[in-house]
Specification:
Elements: E1 3-8, H1 16-31, E2 35-40, H2 46-57, H3 63-87, E3 92-95, E4 102-104, E5 113-116, H4 119-126, E6 130-134, E7 137-139, E8 145-147, H5 152-164, E9 168-173, E10 194-196, H6 197-205, H7 213-222, E11 226-230, E12 238-241, E13 253-257, E14 261-269, H8 274-284, E15 292-294, E16 301-308, H9 313-321, E17 330-334, E18 337-343, H10 353-363, E19 370-373, E20 377-383, H11 387-398
Parallel strand pairs: 1-2, 1-9, 2-6, 3-6, 9-11, 10-12
Antiparallel strand pairs: 4-5, 7-8, 11-12, 13-18, 14-16, 14-17, 15-16, 18-20, 19-20
Amino acid sequence: MALIVQKFGGSSVADAQRVMNVARIVTETYKQGNDVVVVVSAQGDTTDDLIEKAKEINPNAKTREMDQLLAAGEQISISLLAMAIEGLGFPVISLLGWQAGFNTNSVYGSARIKNIRTNRLQAELAKHNIVVVAGFQGINRYDDLTTLGRGGSDTSAVAIAAALHADKCQIFTDVEGVYTADPRKVEGAQKLDEITYDEMLELATLGAQVLNNRSVEMAKKYSVELEVLSSLNPVPGTIVKEKIKMEKMLIRGVTKDTDVALISVVGVDDNPGVAFKIFSKLAHKNINVDIILQSVGRTGTKDVTFTVSKDNGPIAVEAIRELPQLEDKEIKCKTDVAKVSIVGAGMESHPGTASKMFEALYEQNINIQMISTSEIKISVIIDEAEANRAVNAVHNAFLPND
């Protein structure tokens, strides 16, 4: 008998028919003699709908109150799924995040899990109940509800698997696994049987939406083996783990991220400490910075260019303007850009990977505005209008559709 944690996203429980489908998947796993903990997201577009309702009342609502509101989405899902499982004749109980023992810090809207007190989970499993847990949420030291941010249910599932030392953590989605590119946008995208944590983490961070990057970080830290598979088509999925058996492909995936703002601070004095002041200010505002480019100083000045998420673009500009030494400098913010990336541990030992990517873009007459590299990824910033064409061109260069 094994302990299996299964997570189902919003599309998997979007309506009554899909809730019943999930109930059948869960109960089949239970009938095989396994203990089962199920983590569920809010149905379909429920979270987005709740955000819109909040904006109608107060566009500047406090994040604490937003968390109180958004946590309701998962409460609906777990109750409906528990009712469906009960209707099939199986013992089941639904638990909110705090009932399942999730303790978080107090950063409303993007809380981090501090620990999970597993007493209740273990007690319910000992009664042979299927346990259905609300993902995406927990409780802080003030007894306030908190939410974990977008994709937080993935993180909830991995955290439970780690805390309970589960044998497997299955992430069910509306696709059949992890692909070399978005199969809905790129002809010839190939499903991967296996992928390493590091490669999956890069893909998730760079725009692949199949897994949340925080969940992959946690899975790697606690050696939780993940399986990404479809809730709609019962076929083997993709295993995410530390080491894979198959020979490494040069490139494991091509991603596109349009949630990018490109900010340039023009004509900055070429003095020590300017970059520190800019980026420490952004860190103080909890703004994550991705690609950074600083021009070589000429005539006593330089330009500093970097990327943040689109939502953080205006906030970043405002924060920089608060710096006395930059208040008279030109600050540009472009949001019509996209980041296209290739990821693969195999590129470490293959010279010419970058030139091959750049050639594919050149042949499509696509201009590169910024470049960032690491041992297992290369990212470029281009015009957003050219992003889909760029992904297809790069994917075909490395993984041609035979």
